[in-house]
Amino acid sequence: MNAIAPEPALSRQANELARDLTRAEPAIYWLDLAATAAVTHASLWLALTAAVPLKLVAGAVCILALYRAISFIHELTHLRRDEVPGFHFAWNLLIGVPFLTPSLMYEGVHILHHAKDRYGTARDPEYHPLARRPPAELALFLGVALLAPVAVILRFAVLAPLGFLIPAVRRFTVAKASGMVINTGFSREDLDRAGRAPWLAQEIGCWLWSWTLIGLAITGRLPLGWVATIAAIYALMAFLNQVRTAVAHRWENDGAPMKPLDQFLDTVNVPPPALLPFLWAPVGLRYHALHHLMPRLPYHNLGKAHRRLAEVMPKGHVYREAEETELVPAMGRLIGKMRRR
C-alpha cells in the first residue's frame, strides 16, 4: 500500500472501514457513567474520612476516577441528545455540577476545534503552538492547571451571580470564562446560548452549590482539612488532564490554515500495546488522531476502529505516523522540539 495517501483518501478509507461503528450504545454509556460516578464519590468519601494510609490510596483512586468521569464531557459535545436520551442531564447531575465543571464549559467550544478552517489557527480554542515555544513555557502550561479549584470557584461563586446583576460582567463571563480552552485569546461568540434553559440550569446549579460549599466551610460544617483534600484532588486531576493535553498534539503549526492531512498528522494516537493510557487518556482520548479523522465515532468503538485501520494500514502508512508509544516518550519528543526551537 502506498505510504503517501492523498488527503481525501485517508478519510475515505477510514470511513469505509468503520462506518458501521458510528452508532452509540446507550447501555455502555449508562453502565460506564454509573460505575465511574460511584467509584468517584465513594473514593472521595474515603479520602475525606479514612485514616492516612487508606486516605492516600483513596485519594489516588479518586483522582483517576474523577478524571475519567469529567472526560465524558468530551463525549457530550459529540453525542446527540437523542442518541442516549437523558445522558447529558445525568452526567451534569452526577459529575458536572457537583464538581463545578458543567457541560456548558465545553459544548459549543470544543466543536470549533474540529472546524477545518480553524484548526491550528488563532481561532482554534484548543490549540497553542507549544513546540515553537521555549521549554519554560511547558512548565507554565502544566502548572497553571493546579489553579483549577480557584478558577471554578471564581467562575461560579463570584462571576455567575455578578453577571446576573451587571450586563458587562455577564458578557465577559460568557465570552472569556465559560470555556475549557488553552488559547487565551479565544472568546466565545455564541452568547445567545447562555440564555437557554440547559445553560442556565447548569450555571445556577453550580452557583448555588458553590455557595453551599463556601457556607459550609465558613460555618465549620465542612472541615478545612476536607476543603484542602477536595481542592488537592481536583487540582491534581486537572494537572493530569493538562499533561495528557500536552502530548495530544504535535503543536507545530505556526497559526496558518492547515490542510486536512496536516491536521491529522498534528494529532496523536497512543494505541495498544501501551497499557497506561487507560488511566491517563481515558474515554477514548488515547485515539485522539483517529477521533479527528472520524469525530462521530463513540468512544467505545474507537479501539475496534483503530484495529481495523491498523490491519490494512501497516507501519509506514500515513495513518500510523500519528502514533506514539507512551506518555513519557511523547513528552520527551515535545521537550526536544521545544529545545531545538
Q: How many independent structural domains?
A: 1
Please report the distance between the alpha carbons of the first and last residues: 34 Å
Provide the structure class. Answer: mainly alpha
Number of beta strands: 0
Report the principal-axis shape: globular
> Number of helical segments?
15
- Name the helicity range: 55-70%
User: In sequence order, what are the helices and strands, one letter per element?
Assistant: HHHHHHHHHHHHHHH
Please mark out the parts with pLDDT under 50 across 5 or more consecutive residues, or reply none: 1-6
Q: What share of residues are in beta strands?
A: under 5%
Largest sheet: none
What's the alpha carbon Rg, rounded to whole Å? Answer: 20 Å
Task: Explain what this protein looks like in three dimensions.
There is one protein chain. Helix content is 60%, strand content 0%. It contains 15 helices and no strands. It is globular, with a radius of gyration of 20 Å. The protein starts with 6 loop residues before the first helix and ends with a helix.
Keywords:
341 residues, mainly alpha, disordered N terminus
